[in-house]
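hiii, so i know i said id send this last week but things got crazy w the move. better late than never?? heres the sequnce for the chain we talked about at the cafe, plus the structure i predicted for it. fair warning i was half asleep when i ran it
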Amino acid sequence: MAGWRGYGGDMDRMESLAGRRIPRAVTDTALALVLAAVCMTLPMAMPPGGPELRTTDAGFFVLVLLATLPLAVHRFLPVPVLLVTAVSAAVLQGLHYVPELSGPEGTSIGPTYAAVGTAVFLTATRSTPRIATLVVSVFIPAAAVTEAVLAPDGHRLAALFTDAVLLVAAWALGRLTRARAAIRDQAVERAAALEREQVANARAAVMEERARIARELHDIVAHNVSLMVVQTIAADRVQERDAAKAHELHGTIEETGRATVTELRRLLDVLRTDEGAEGDPSKEPPQPTLDSLPALVDSVRAAGLQVDFSTSGTPAALPAGSHLTVYRVVQEALTNTLKHAGRTRTVLRVAWEPERARLTVRLCDDGPRPDGERADDDRNDEAPVRPPVVAHGAGHGLVGMRERVGAVGGSLHTGTRPGGGYCVHAVIPLPTTASASSPAPRHEGHSPYAEHPRPAGR
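okay and structure toks below
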């Protein structure tokens, strides 16, 4: 019995009209009660002049309950419930409590036969293939022969075929329901496996991009530390000859140290896994800054992309890691535009907003140009068409940009434009006075940052 209950194809729940799932215990119990009530009212529903039936008594009600109520526990004992239901229905007919399936008055498929057909359907749905085969090859022929024996003379063959067709149809419907449930479960499992694979791929892309960012931030930290060493040696050498110069160098060393600590914290936040890939896929210098954007724009213009580049606002001090982030975001956005939209018009705006303590970068393209609007030197080339945009940025390029911007505390928004084209909008926070002041020894006299600011990205 445990094999029948634990088989993987068992229908665990039945779906209701509201789209929710109802436990099988509820549906089986309700089905048993409905069939029991209908069977008990059968004698009162018989038309006048029908077949002569035995007067209902206690035996009738006991047999009706035996033929219907066991369906409430069919999920636990499918085969015993089927046998009890069939035997009880046969006894009801043999004692003439219910009319014959086929007789002089014609065919009469009453609720007791419906109870047997329901039991066959549920057994075919919930049992193993071996049990289902025994039902159709042994139980159904035996039930049909029994029905033929109980039928009046001259109607045995009709009763045999009628009962066989009824039960075989219930069995076939049960197996079809089971097959559909198995297909549905397989589809759900495949969808879940695909979703897990997509999540794993996205996580791998994030880890790869974090490792790349960590390598670049490591180069920045190493550069700053080396610079501090050189400045310390220089300050030590000029301290006796030029105290003011030594004081200036000490201030520069302090500022460089603060920037190094900030970049080191970001490095520790970004670094999530050991990464041993050799080489750097980037073809740009290790630490490009915003000053490198014009050269980047010129390089994509040479490739045929029409870029309208402009900056606005007053530049402010920006950590080297943020410089690198802005450069990589613009580089990735321009590369994607050239790859997916072809030689189209692109607008790149870099806006310094010190009053709002942020730097905004917005890059929008017009999308692939129609054939009639291509330039003369581009008429023989097929402009690539931008592929459909996947929700939440499933592409590795968008994942990398989001990781970079998030590593410096910024935000990134991407998406298609209403009139066509694509936009990338990044917001990078600028260091504030409060965030720049961390516990460190103070210099007497004037601040070294007021008159000798450290160049951004150096």
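btw Residues 1-19, 272-286, 372-395, 434-458 have pLDDT under 50 and may be disordered. thought thatd interest u
miss u guys!!
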